[in-house]
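User: Please predict the structure of the protein below. I'd like the answer in structure-token form so I can feed it into my own downstream comparison script.

Assistant: Understood. Taking the following sequence of 402 residues as input:
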Amino acid sequence: MLTFACQHFDRRTRQLTHCDLFPSDPAMQRPFSIRQLCSLFSVLTLLLCGATDAMGQDWQWISASATEGTASGWYRWAIDPAAFGSNEVRLMIVSDSTCSVHVNGQRVLRHSGFEKVDGALQARGIEIHTLLRNGRNQVAVELQSEAAKGVVGIAIQAVRDGKTTAVGGGWKSAKAMPPVGWQQTDFNDRDWPELKPVAEVPVAGLQVKAPSEFAAPVVKARVRNSLPFVLEDGDHVALVGATFIERAQLFEHLEATLTGTLGSKKVTFRNLGWSADTTFAESRGIFDRPDVGYLRMVEHIRAEEPTVAILCYGQNEALTAGMTPENFAKQFSQLIDELTASGIPCVVVSPHELFPTAPPIPSPARFNSRIRTYSEAAGSVAQSHQLAFVDMFTGFQDQMNS
């Protein structure tokens, strides 16, 4: 049994005589300095408060309530851009309700509850640094409670050069269920009111157990690079690219051709092609900057949660003034890296050659030598990432005419 006794404080020496933390024993009576006493108090605090206080002051707590029925909440957190470039970025979340979490459009937690361990709610830990980008980063949290009230606590810690810091940023909350796409970074939340989370647990007696590990945000992409590439039962395929892909929305030739090879397998397709698109996604920016268009493209693909992404780029880049195969390859690699970070296996498809036209119409075939160079660059990108590559340039006219 621990005892604590203070008998006398000497102002001159600033010492306490007989500060006993052990069973009373006159032989153990000796002076303790103020610094030693403070250290002992710190140890006692950690022992008594356990996991909740061990997690520090980084937690931000949000409450949801309903006057009728069950509580729901939808929240967006524009996190501090300084988190990008950290060696590790750890997201911790805990709730007495069911939660879903998206980071830059990537779902990292799907309608998950939190179990109790020794009477405390077990927080979940997710390592999210691979999902962050230089600039704007967004965390979206959805809470669904089975009661009239619910609470969620969340924290993000960035580790850089061995130093751990809490990540801040501004919060907003929806007044009612938001429309589709509210989890994406470029969603317009200007009408959402600002939210001020609290630092203290808003539920009396709620105990939290810190996560013992930080899982990857998504399941690691399985390598699928054999040729011919084989679609599997249950695959959800995202078709991504420029006009060649976009026009397939009208004629459905890609889906029909691929489906004809599947037999009894059930595979679904989602066409995310965009006319005049490039790996830089300038067209998708619409009235925004090209980098915003690129952000939209990546997050639209992530939102589909495909099991395979078929990527067809290079033709528009070949026709763009000032573009080089090296710039194209670098940007294509960045796109593949972002999708791989989301656990999405990719297949690279080269651009096709252009057909000649009869005079006096200028023949598009005059660009084929340049398109061939970009087709080879796409193949090199696929090889460097160990991805399946479909050469649609070589012999394209012969196959189309046969």
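That's the full token string. The longest helix spans residues 34-54.
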